[in-house]
Each structure stands twice: as C-alpha cells, then as structure tokens.
Amino acid sequence: MTARPPLILASTSRYRRELLERLRLPFEVVSPQVDETPRPAEAPADLAVRLAHAKAAVVAVLHPNAVVIGSDQVAELDGQPIGKPGTHERAVQQLRTMRGRSVVFHTAVAVQRSATGYAGAALAPVTVHFRMLSDAEIEHYLRAEQPYDCAGSAKCETLGIALLQAIDSDDPTALVGLPLIRTCELLRAAGFDPLQP
Fold it and tell me: What is d(CA 5, CA 97) in angstroms, rounded to the nearest whole number?
C-alpha cells in the first residue's frame, strides 16, 4: 500500500480548520495569499469558485506532492455580494438589510493535486431565510457574538441560529465555510479517500 500524500488546507480561516478536523485526517494549514477582489460584474457564485480554485492552485504550486483544499464563500442578496462587515456599524446595516429576506451563501471548495494533474471544484449554495428582526434583537445579537469576520454578520453554529427562520442546504457544513460532503467527493476524485487508512 502506498503512503497517503500530505493534505493541506489553503486557508487561514479557523472555521474551515475546525470543520476539516472533523474528518480526523492529519493536515497542515498554509496561507494562500490570494487577492480576493471581485472582477467587474462577476457573479457571487463565480467569485467563490474562482477564489477557491486560486487558493488551492497557489499552495499546490508550492507543495506539488500534496493534496490541497481551497475554499471561499460569498454571500449574495439581490445579485450583489455581501462581504464580512469588519465593524459593528456595518454589521448592523447588513442585518437590517437582510431581515425578513433570503440570502444565498455560495460556498465553493476546490481540490488540487499537482503530482497527478487533478484539479476539481464544487459549489454548495445555501439559502438562509432571516426572520423579521427588530433593531433591538440585532443589537443584542451583535454585542453578544461580534461576528464581524463572518460574511452576512451571523454565525449559524451559535447564537446566530436565533436570527433565522430556515436554512436550505444539501451539505450541512457549507454555511459555516467548508462543504464537507463535496470536499470528500473531491478528495476521493483526487485519489485521497477519507475512509481509507
């Protein structure tokens, strides 16, 4: 039996690292250093896929014998991307804009293995239905959780779930930042089966 190639997560996101740890596979983390600026008129889903590919590709060049996972997430409302708020004020504005509405979170994952020439990607869209939130609920939530590093200003895995009416997805970890069902599919296609010793 041949040795399994190294596995690398091309991401600095602690959320993605925690999700990948669920697969109980040894891996290392490498920062991908990719410009995430959207191109003119680039659709949010296309942006997510392009950035996931770019992150995996730049790290795969540096580690040609590894299997590299890149991922990106872009939230979309009315065809426009919604980024990470960064500040309390911007988070308040985001949640006020999204209340009572549905937002699509496009989570893309890409896997590259330079040694074999494999490069694949998949998109896991998640539709999130926000409740009709009061200003007081928004303020309480943001003060409690401070999700300023999360696209859409909410963390569904903790108190942010109380902001929501429903989540529609076929890959349950996609909203947190790494769609593990699709990740496993891509790893198998790259010759790295998570269920093989």
Answer: 45
72 is a catalytic site residue: yes
pTM: 0.91
Alpha-carbon distance 62 to 34, whole Å? 14
What does 69-120 look like in DSSP terms, one character per residue? Answer: EEEEEEEEETTEEE----SHHHHHHHHHHHTTSEEEEEEEEEEEETTTTEEE
CA–CA distance, 176 with 165 (Å, rounded to integer): 17
> pLDDT (tens digit, 9 = 90+) per residue, 54-95?
999 999 999 999 999 999 999 999 988 888 899 999 999 999
Please give the C-alpha separations between residue 121 and each of 3, 81, 181, 182, in angstroms, as whole numbers.
24, 20, 12, 9
Amino acid residing at 140: H
Q: Which residues pair with 111 in a beta bridge?
A: 69, 120
Nearest residue to 175 (alpha-carbon basis) of 142, 152, 192: 152
Which of these is catalytic: 35, 46, 72, 168? 72
In tens, the pLDDT along 104-117 reads 999 999 999 999 99
Instruction: For residues 9 and 19, give the distance between their C-alpha atoms in angstroms, rounded to a whole number.
Output: 11
Answer for the pair 20, 27: CB distance below 8 angstroms, yes or no. Answer: yes
Instruction: List all residues 6 or more positions away from 120 whose beta carbon is below 8 Å from its beta carbon.
Output: 110, 111, 112, 186, 189, 190
Structure tokens at 146: 């401070």
